[in-house]
Amino acid sequence: MNAPVIDLRGIAKHYRMGDSDVPALQGIDLAVTRGAFVAVKGPSGSGKSTLLNICGLLDGFDAGSYRLDGEDMSGLDETARTLIRRRRIGFVFQSYNLVPVMTVRENVEYPLILLGMGEDQRIARVAETLALVGLEQLAERRPDHLSGGQRQRVAIARALVKSPALVIADEPTANLDSATATQVIDLMRGLGARHGATFLIATHDDRMTAHCDEVRTLTDGVMQ
Amino acid sequence: MKAQLELLRFAWRNVLRNRRRSLATVIIAALGAAAIMIAGGFALYTYDALREGAAREFGHFTVAHREFFQRDEETPLQYGLENYRKLSAALEKDQRVTRVLPRLNFSGLISNGDKSMVFLGMGADARAEGAARGVFLKLLEGSLFGGDEPGAPRVLLGSALAKSLNAHPGTPLTLLTTTVEGSMNAVDVEVSGIVSTGWPEIDKRLVYAPLPAVQKLLLTDKVSALAVYLEDTAMTPAALADWQARDSIHTFKPWWEQAFYYQSVRALYNRIFGLLGIIIAVLVFFSVANTLSMAVVERTREIGTLRALGALPGEIVAGFAREGGLIGVLGVVIGMALAGLTTALLLGLDVQMPPPPGRSEGYPLKVYADPTIYAVAASVIVVLCIVAAWFVSRKASRKTIVEALGHV
Ligand SMILES: Nc1ncnc2c1ncn2[C@@H]1O[C@H](COP(=O)(O)OP(=O)(O)OP(=O)(O)O)[C@@H](O)[C@H]1O
Ligand SMILES: [Mg+2]
User: Fold this and answer.
1) Mean pLDDT of A139-145
2) In the structure, what pLDDT confidence band is assigned to residue A1 with cuts at 50, 70 and 90?
3) Which of B189, B222, B248 represents a domain boundary (last residue)?
4) Cβ pair A114:B315 closer than 8 A
5) Which residues pair with residue A66 across a beta bridge?
6) pLDDT by residue (tens digit) across B312-356?
7) Distance (Å, rounded) from C-alpha B239 to C-alpha B255?
8) Cα–Cα distance, B381 to B174 (Å, whole number)
9) Strands B154-158 and B225-230, how do they pair?
10) Is B323 exposed, middle or buried (0-12, 13-18, 19+ CB in 10 A)?
11) Residue A30, H or E segment
12) Are B292 and B396 in contact (CB under 8 A)?
């Protein structure tokens, strides 16, 4: 009855490099239950990012099936995938990817503007989320006036402000020092739990895996 | 509504992101807009000046015998107007009519005793002609004559004709012409004044003589036609239509059907300024496209991020279109100021243009500040900027997200 948020069956993906095919994922099966905090680890080039891009609907796959929240994701066009991302998927990137011309508050507000949310509701949501990540004091700053840890907290707020079903985080702590990384991990867990969001995280970081409900390992495109 | 405003604010900040580059683009848009507005204003002014010149020369419309414009006369005044005084009186009752000038065209030889020249003459009241034509008939020497003065008939000569006859006010001359009956007749006249129409070809042959004297010389009571002057050139079509409906015996011909110079200059200028406008538009388009395409490349990763967050390609393009629009609006505002300043400056300064082809007189350089031209130029520039933005961001907005995110 509690359908998995992510349900991958036999997912395969290869990249074309000139004349040769590079297999990146080979028959991945993965089920992630609602609210879980799941890490994917593995050596560089093992296919972590490829897997997360597929789960985040940023990229397609060659074989297998993907059900998000019970809904079949194969054969969707780019517009349909965009609208699903907009509503149901949040992203946290390794290098934050904040929009430099927007203030902290505006960066967090942007996903709600895309959703067409009314102004009053938007303002309330943004204020609430910024308070949860402890950035209400810095709301009017531009990202380039923030430290790495602060930026990643803005990114987490931006990912969670719309209460997404799924948050995709590709190496979210790779650019952070140890203490900051721990803060960021705690924050993701805390906010995730609050919003009932499911996390899929790619990482090399053992501090990260230590906090996860489940850790899966990828090697050469094969899930252990 | 508020969200749209917010998106516009982001676009504005993006414009300010590379100030020098944006400023250069705004300046190009401004100069383009100003150039179109100034060129258009100058063309309108020129058309206006030429229109007034033509209307002053021919009268706002000409009333003539039905065959006058259709056929060549076999004898002088074969298709002249007989009872023109009655017709003239009727026309003068029209509120819009300020003047009705009878004109008698004739030709022949003019001689100073040593030398004869071919002339194209007009029997008319020189004072009334001078008053009607204003600055378009310039008195260089002597004075104008009235309608019916005692003594030897006094004539006005075109400046070039006067020069080749070595004539000055007071010089006695003889006019020789053919009468309506086909015989030759001559009259001794005295030069009253020397005039210039601004057309060297006309000034070489022009003779104005008092109408009664010319009628006597040609042995006729007729005139060639009546030139009708109205209060305002803009009244011509309506007045013309009224009279055409009222009087089917005569031909009423408006100035524009006689003003070939006006028509051909207008056609030429329309082509020149049209081409100029297209060139400016292309320059502005490519300049804005160039600036924004640099911005698009620099922001590839940002585009990927926004797409990942759920922005549709169209929304990415709309963002760049807002930037293009802002650059355009800013450029157009500055361009309007430049064009307006040019108009004001030319009103204050008296800058003279060299004479146009076929003429001897220059004319003052003025530029109209015309709301229609301003509006059209402004919208064209802004639309071009938006289209340029759409054009350069369309492809980047559809690039695969993974690729865009990997872009450094
Ligand atoms: N755009 C691409 N074109 C060709 N090959 C690619 C492309 N992206 C990834 N690959 C290849 O696919 C495989 C998996 O790459 P992926 O980026 O998913 O690994 P990863 O586990 O995320 O590595 P890292 O830890 O370095 O981020 C690698 O062999 C990589 O070289
Ligand atoms: Mg990776």
Assistant:
1) 96
2) very low
3) B248
4) yes
5) A8
6) 999 999 999 999 999 999 999 999 999 999 999 998 888 888 887
7) 12
8) 64
9) unpaired
10) buried
11) strand A20-32
12) no
Strand partners, B62: B227, B253
Interface size A-B, in CB pairs within 8 Å, comes to 64
Identity (one letter) of the amino acid at B317? V
Asked whether residue B352 is assigned to any structural domain, the reply reads: yes
8-state DSSP, B322: H
Residues B305 and B176 both lie in one domain: no
The total domain count for chain B is: 2
**B61 lies in some domain:** no
Characterize B286-308 residue by residue with b for buried, 16 or more Cβ atoms within 10 angstroms of its Cβ, and e for exposed: ebbbbbbbebbeebbbbbbbbbb
The reported pLDDT for the residue numbered B1 is: 55
SS3 (DSSP) at B72 = coil
Contact partners, residue B180, CB within 8 Å, separation at least 6: B75, B76, B77, B78, B218, B219, B220, B222
Residue B266 CB: number of other CB atoms within 10 A?
17
Inter-chain residue contact B401 with A58, CB threshold 8 Å: yes
Same domain, yes or no, for B108 and B183?
Answer: yes
Determine if ligand 1 sits within 6 Å of the CB of residue A23: no
Q: Is the confidence at residue A104, as pLDDT, over 60?
A: yes
Would you call B185 helix, strand, or coil by DSSP?
strand
- Domain A35-53+82-217 homologous superfamily, CATH: P-loop containing nucleotide triphosphate hydrolases (3.40.50.300)
pLDDT attached to residue B136:
74
Which has the higher per-residue pLDDT, A207 or B339?
A: B339
ipTM score: 0.95
Write the pLDDT tens digit of every residue in A154-173.
Answer: 999 999 999 999 999 999 99
What is the domain extent for residue B389? 2-53+262-405
Indicate the average pLDDT of chain A.
93
Tell me the per-residue pLDDT of A31-88, one tens digit each, with 9 for 90 and over. Answer: 999 999 999 999 999 999 999 999 999 999 999 999 999 999 988 999 999 999 999 9
Q: How many residues does chain A have?
A: 224
Distance, CA of B86 to CA of B75 (rounded, Å)? 24
Q: Which residues of chain B have pLDDT under 50?
A: none
Determine the residue type at B367. Answer: V
* DSSP-derived secondary structure letter, B107: E
Chain A, window 76-115: residues with a beta carbon less than 8 angstroms from a chain B beta carbon: 78-79, 82-83, 85-87, 89, 91, 93, 97, 99-102, 106, 109-111, 113-115
Task: Report if residue B59 sits inside a domain.
Answer: no
**Interface membership of A141 toward B (CB under 8 Å):** no
User: Is B63 exposed, middle or buried, given 0-12, 13-18 or 19+ CB atoms closer than 10 A?
Assistant: buried
Q: Is A45 in the pocket of ligand 1 (CB under 6 A)?
A: yes
